[in-house]
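pinging the channel bc i need a second pair of eyes. not urgent but kinda urgent?? the chain im working w is below, pasted from the shared doc
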Amino acid sequence: MSRTSQTNSNRVPSPIRYYVSFSGEKGTFSYWDSANKERVDLGSEVEFVVMDTRSAITGWNDPANARIFSNRVKSVAKEELTVRCDKQVLATGMYSAIKGDIANAGGKFCTEVFALMKINGEFAPVQLDLSGASLGCWMAFVEGLGGSWAIYKDLITTKLGEQKKKGRVTFFEVAFGTAPLSEDANELANAFNDDKLQPYLNNSTATQEAAVV
């Protein structure tokens, strides 16, 4: 079975250990350590093996002082999104039809990359959320590889990208790259994907509660 294969399963808990995001302001990746109540900086250079990807909406609504989140989908062209802020439903429908309402509320499109990322010298299961400039860099990188199928062939690497300015905001991009994927890492990713990740992603509860983490 490949890392992109899908299976049906009963309800299972999330196998994700770290929820990683990129700060354009700092140019670094980080995750929230719930045990120590602190954000751990991983620097600008990380390595990971992609197992699967999903799309969702994330963001922040200032009037409500609350997070914006949605269900996760495989294709925004084929599946509807239900976007929420706290307990309120902000919009429901295809992304192309509701993206204006989402942006006005403070929401933004997000690609969730499920991967094994090397943290503290060992590969650990992560959900890497890419939005804004980092998502733009990711999409250009995937296109340059020849399509989404190609991201599963190699080890994905990152470096600090160019510093850009939009209006008064200065931010860093991400320079994605590839490196040879070892057989051990490939087998580890395939096994984790088939045994843990796909049963979780195919669970209806996980799909509906994607961004509530």
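so The first strand starts at residue 18 and ends at 23. and The first helix runs from residue 95 to 105. — does that match what u expected or am i reading it wrong
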